Amino acid sequence: MDRRTKNLVKRLKKSDIAIIDHDDIDEVAANSLIDARPQAIINTQASITGRYPAKGVYKILKAGIPVLDEVGENIFSQLREGVLIEVRGNQVFWGKTVIAEGKELSLEDVRLKLKEAHQNIQLELDHFVDNTMEYAKKEKDLLIGNIDVPVLDTYMLNRHVLIVVRGSSYKEDLRTISPYIQEEQPVLIGVDGGADALLEFGLKPDLIVGDMDSVSDTALSSGAEIVVHAYADGTAPGLDRIESMGLKAKTFPMPGTSEDVAMILAWEYGASLIVAVGSHSNMIDFLEKGRKGMGSTFLVRLKVGSILVDARGVSQLYKQHLPSKYLLQLLVAALIPITVILAVSPATRPFFRLILLQLKIIFNI
């Protein structure tokens, strides 16, 4: 049980039933739940409200994990983690007592909600844009440049910087751009759990940025430089965790997301190119983030846009296949020395003579 899905998945096991408090489940949360493979998921809220096309619960159901929706928040006060419960249809039993009832979601239910969401998206987008512009007016210093960045040891001047967020497609992105990483050796920045994503692929982060709520102790102890994302007033709750581990960190007070912080640091320290992995890059990504306004994020992308590239764009440049004519030329070039060696080698001369004799017999030469 946990009201924060990203905390829950750290403890969730295959034999468990997950109890969450998460409306409009996003794809990142869905992927983390699917990876844990619980027996079932009980949600106190609506896994898809129909406000916008949140496809997380669709992925969960397609993965074969049943979802019981809208059981109400009382279940958190009625149960404690570790007890044995049973889900029968739309009811939750603790022993013989029904402690909650909800709606057992089907794929057809979700399809109808997605259809409704596509009709509502215009209104939701209007609200999002209005809020974003309101926040942008307050946070315009990000664009103007009046912001104090912490002094870093990580050298980024005229280098490529790879910023990894553990978003919905980070695994695919990292897999497809592995040739680019090997060739360019970019500075590696992990945004919270993005640091663990790098370690997952055998890569060591140079810098870890975030509020430190979803990054592992292993990643924090990897030797990377650490920057704690602080609130605009300077308070940094994540710093307590770093200090309790005996590690050193710098703080960076800034509105917006930790992803924004990472991009600003790369920009301010002179990166020649910023490659974003698993980041928020489209309308649904921003709506899924759940903030009323993304003013700072909007402004950050305006500021760094000239050097910002999505990982999927980079992958198109680094996964090109050789044309067949070049492969044929390589094959011929490889066969020529092999043929010459075989022809002049004393050990293979009798073999070639036998082949030649056999050909003469076949063709009556």
UniProtKB/TrEMBL annotation:
Name of the protein described by the UniProt record: Uncharacterized protein
Origin superkingdom: Bacteria
NCBIfam families on file: division_SteA (NF040608)
Keyword ATP-binding: yes
Secreted in keyword set: no
Thiamin pyrophosphokinase catalytic domain residues: 183-221
Bilayer-crossing regions: 326-347
Pfam families in alphabetical order: SteA-like_C, TPK_catalytic
InterPro entries linked to this entry: Put_SteA-like, SteA-like_C, TPK_catalytic, TPK_catalytic_sf
Location of the SteA-like C-terminal domain: 312-362
UniProt keyword terms in alphabetical order: ATP-binding, Kinase, Membrane, Nucleotide-binding, Transferase, Transmembrane, Transmembrane helix
Any one GO biological process: thiamine diphosphate biosynthetic process
One Gene Ontology molecular-function label: kinase activity
Coiled-coil parts of chain: none
